[in-house]
Design a protein that fits this description.
Strand content of chain A: 15-25%
Distance between the termini of chain B: 13 Å
Distance between the termini of chain A: 71 Å
CATH topology of the largest domain in chain A: Rossmann fold
Largest sheet of chain B: 2 strands, antiparallel
Number of strands of chain B: 4
Shape of chain B: globular
Number of helices of chain B: 13
CATH class of chain B: Mainly Alpha
Strand order of the largest sheet of chain B: 1-4
Number of helices of chain A: 13
Radius of gyration of chain B: 21 Å
Strand content of chain B: under 5%
Structural class of chain B: mainly alpha
Strand order of the largest sheet of chain A: 10-9-11-12-13-16-17
CATH superfamily of the largest domain in chain A: Response regulator
Structural class of chain A: alpha/beta
Largest sheet of chain A: 7 strands, mixed
Order of helices and strands of chain B: HHHHHHEEEHHHHEHHH
Number of domains of chain A: 2
CATH topology of chain B: ABC transporter involved in vitamin B12 uptake, BtuC
Oligomer: heterodimer
Number of strands of chain A: 17
Helix content of chain A: 25-40%
């Protein structure tokens, strides 16, 4: 009798010991989880890619550990000769995949690079979340996608399942948002438009032109420039001036000479009275350097995310980030979007760990949880991700170049 | 030369298919010419002069670079692929020297810039010239009697070397080049204006080209260059120092390229290590267009290409520009293979 009871106590005690032994003993970690990033962090594109990387890195370092696992951040650079390069991006993803501790990646920054990376990550599979990809063909199906973008959303996912997410508003919103802003807020009636003949630039130039015309404005001249070599804008700028353009919309990025047209306007347009508008591709420091003496407060750019600094709940984190990164150039338009991407990814990983009873989840588990992201309170907005990877309530902002920096003048929330 | 053209013409016109092609060709040319004239008329006087102005400015820079290609080919029959990169180097060097002359964007303007800019030109041209004669001494002179392909590949190699050096020095991305060109419009009378910016570029280039022409035609070294280009052995027999003459050619060509680099920077406000490659291609095309080895030919070729560029950009569409330039080039070369003003290469 006594011996059986003692055995029962021993067995019960053993069970309790095992149950308690599941939790970490304070000091030692259960293992390492790596978050990778792939952004253009050298050359002309670095002024947009590097601040974004810092934002994501800050989110990871702020969290430090997740459910007992140590967090590590491994950044990759997809710029070649200063410009984002799809082939390099795909190579980076291969390298990221080879590290079994990586459970997700933040990036890429550019839609063209995403088109090269998604199929690679899709087959692994690995969760991707981009702070800034705006090309609508990455997640949605339109009949012009194969022709203009060179790919289709379905074509990028060989497994037939989705692994890609983003928090940025897609291009179908950026161009029209600036079109509305130019007509309604700036009161422009005639604009000249040029594009860099790349999928993103051409797309925003087209959607801007369509919206601006729909509102009642007139596109006086429209031109595509081959930006694989340095274009001479003078003759075209003169043509735009002669046609009565009050401003110019550049469907381009800084790496594709987006703001060179502004610099070459010297002697043709007056920087104090002529406008220069563009998408997020020109809303960076490189644009201002390229514009030289022609930079002025008549320059406006849209950004595919809302401004974190006008969000009161983000104030503490924003302040903490700025304390850790006092250089002004380290905070870019997508810094806090980068932060949010990393945070959403970590949140999904956390939920995946829980679903696995505290054990390390698989990469597919993380993807499944990403798709279930609902009302996540980010710095740049509250995010619910849908099954194709898009945010259900994307937000945009319009920035103006004023007193030496790009600052938000308008936040636009879009209801999809 | 003449016999070859005659045979070509005969082959084109003599056969039924040749005549048809000829007819089609002429119709296309006529349609394009009429369309151009019509659009020029519609656009009005001011727009025309503005467009031509920008075209000549663009062409003037091409011309300055083309001169280097043409002089070197004329004297040693080498296509100096590295020349376009010496031109880029000029832009890079001048960018680095600007603070020394007090040329900072925004803080200096008007007539104040004349003297510092002049100083910048002189020093940059000198440095580019020194680089080029070093290249000639080290890479081309040892291969002067080697099979033709050897110096050709060396030139391509030199081009890559220079691009690589600039890449290492300032990085691969675009550098902002300040503009010190005037911003106003010059009145030509009757309400027609032209950008002072374009005029400035044309004036500087023309002054340099005139200086070159005077030098080649009036000076002793210029005469030596012409003699060496015409017949190297005879020139040597007459007591001309061939090595010195060839070095002088490289020196002058690079000085002009260096000046072109500065003007390019001022006009386009952006320079990048690999710019010289594409630009050199256009400049060399201009040199062949005008007649390789022919100095006035290179100037004419450059200016013409610039004007075609501008008329196509201004009256048609940028997408047609490359087609127009090369179609005209092929058209001219088929009927005048020696280029517009004829070739000037060593007699064999």
């Amino acid at each position: 009798m006594v011996r059986t009871r003692g055995l029962g106590v021993l067995i019960a005690a053993t069970f309790v010991a095992f149950a308690c032994g599941g939790t970490s003993t304070g000091g030692s970690s259960k293992g390492e989880i790596v978050i990778a990033s792939d952004l253009p962090t050298s050359g002309a594109d670095a002024s947009s890619g590097l601040p974004t990387q810092y934002g994501a890195a800050f989110a990871v370092s702020q969290m430090g550990t997740l459910k007992g696992y140590t967090l590590k951040f491994t950044p990759f650079d997809d710029a070649v000769n200063g410009k984002h390069d799809p082939t390099k991006g795909a190579q980076n993803v291969q390298q990221i995949l080879s590290n079994s501790k990586v459970l997700g990646m933040v990036g890429p920054f550019n839609s063209g690079v995403a088109a090269a990376e998604i199929p690679v990550a899709n087959q692994a599979p690995l969760a991707m979340i981009s702070p800034s990809n705006t090309n609508e063909c990455l997640t949605l199906a339109f009949d012009y996608c194969q022709k203009y973008a060179g790919y289709t959303a379905a074509g990028l996912r060989p497994t037939g399942k989705n692994n890609y997410f983003r928090i940025a508003a897609n291009d179908t919103f950026q161009g029209p948002a600036m079109g509305d802003f130019a007509y309604d807020t700036l009161g422009l009636k005639t604009v000249a438009v040029w594009d860099d003949q790349e999928p993103f630039g051409l797309g925003v130039a087209n959607t801007f032109s369509a919206e601006f015309t729909k509102k009642g404005g007139k596109i006086v001249v429209r031109q595509g420039f081959d930006t694989t070599s340095k274009p001479d804008f003078h003759t075209w700028l003169n043509r735009a001036k002669t046609a009565g353009a009050q401003g110019i919309y550049a469907g381009a990025t800084s790496a594709s000479y987006g703001c060179l047209a502004r610099a070459q306007s010297q002697g043709i347009f007056d920087p104090a009275t002529s406008y220069y508008l563009g998408p997020d591709g020109i809303g960076d420091g490189q644009c201002i350097t390229d514009s030289g003496a022609m930079a002025s407060d008549k320059m406006y750019a849209s950004q595919g995310v809302a401004d974190a600094e006008s969000n009161p709940t983000a104030a503490t984190t924003v302040a903490a980030y700025k304390k850790a990164h006092p250089t002004a150039a380290d905070t870019g338009a997508y810094t806090f979007a980068g932060y949010d991407c990393a945070a959403i990814l970590l949140d999904a990983i956390g939920r995946a760990i829980d679903a696995k009873g505290g054990n390390l989840p698989s990469r597919q588990d993380v993807i499944d949880q990403m798709a279930k992201t609902s009302n996540f309170p980010g710095l740049t907005g509250t995010y619910t991700l849908n099954s194709v990877g898009d945010p259900t309530k994307p937000a945009l902002q319009i920035q103006q170049y004023k007193s030496g920096a790009w600052s938000t003048v308008k936040n636009i929330a879009v209801t999809v | 030369m003449g016999a070859r053209v005659e045979r070509l013409r005969a082959s084109l016109i003599g056969t039924p298919s040749g005549t048809l092609l000829n007819l089609v060709g002429f119709v296309v040319v006529a349609v394009v010419a009429i369309a151009t004239v019509q659009r020029v008329y519609q656009g009005g006087g001011t727009y025309f002069f503005q467009t031509i102005g920008f075209g000549l400015a663009q062409g003037a820079i091409f011309a300055l670079v083309a001169l280097g290609y043409t002089m070197v080919y004329g004297i040693i029959e080498l296509i100096n692929f590295a020349h376009g990169d010496v031109f880029t180097l000029g832009a890079f060097i001048s960018l680095a020297l600007m603070p020394l002359f007090g040329l900072t964007e925004g803080s200096i303007s008007g007539l104040q810039i004349v003297l510092p800019l002049l100083g910048l030109f002189v020093v940059t041209m000198l440095l580019c010239a020194l680089v080029n004669i070093t290249i000639e001494r080290v890479a081309y002179r040892p291969l002067r009697h080697a099979p033709r392909l050897a110096p050709l590949i060396t030139a391509i190699g030199m081009s890559s070397l220079l691009e690589g050096a600039m890449n290492v020095w300032r990085g691969p991305f675009n550098l902002h080049y300040p503009s010190f060109l005037p911003e106003f419009q010059i009145q030509l009378g009757g309400g027609v204006t032209i950008a002072a910016k374009a005029v400035m570029v044309i004036v500087i280039a023309v002054v340099l080209m005139i200086a070159l022409t005077l030098f080649v035609n009036r000076s002793k070294l210029g005469k030596a260059m012409r003699a060496t280009a015409q017949d190297r052995d005879a020139a040597q027999l007459m007591g001309i120092d061939i090595n010195r003459t060839i070095s002088a050619t490289f020196f002058i060509g690079a000085a002009l390229a260096g000046a072109a680099g500065i003007i390019y920077g001022l006009y386009y406000n952006s320079v990048q290590a690999f710019d010289g490659f594409t630009y050199g291609l256009y400049a060399f095309t201009a040199a062949v267009f005008g007649g390789i080895g022919n100095i006035p030919g290179a100037a004419l070729g450059g200016l013409l290409i610039g004007v075609i560029f501008s008329i196509s950009d201004g009256y048609f569409s940028v997408a047609w520009t490359q087609i127009m330039i090369f179609a005209i080039l092929i058209f001219v070369l088929v009927f005048r293979p020696t280029g517009l003003l004829g070739m000037r290469v060593p007699e064999k």
